[in-house]
């Protein structure tokens, strides 16, 4: 059974930092593509950052230079380091794994106050 469990969300002031974690089980994150998406109220879910199967990373323009995605293969965990947070980063953040199909975590709330 595939499980993706996010943690690390919370309330932070603008300019602050958070690190999200996504612990995977039932899959090997080295094999597929992994990513972080977010969804704000009334908005569509959007890609924030991803690591392709070949290892290349990509970021949404809005987070380039502030967010960093990484993975620890030994821990089967994906991370999202978020710095210089802005109120517009407020959203539910979801971990995603793709290999033939999409797998999603339950999401973790990030709230950035001004």
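Sequence proposed for the structure above (114 residues):
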């Amino acid at each position: 059974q595939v499980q993706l469990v996010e943690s690390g969300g919370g309330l932070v002031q603008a300019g602050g930092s958070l690190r999200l974690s996504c612990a995977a089980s039932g899959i090997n994150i080295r094999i597929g593509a992994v990513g972080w998406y977010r969804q704000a109220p009334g908005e569509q879910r959007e890609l924030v950052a991803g690591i392709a199967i070949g290892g290349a990373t990509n970021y949404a323009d809005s987070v380039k230079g502030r967010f960093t995605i990484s993975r620890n293969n030994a821990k089967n965990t994906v991370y999202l380091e978020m710095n210089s947070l802005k109120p517009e980063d407020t959203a539910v953040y979801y971990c995603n794994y793709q290999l033939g199909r999409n797998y999603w975590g339950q999401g973790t709330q990030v709230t950035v106050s001004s």
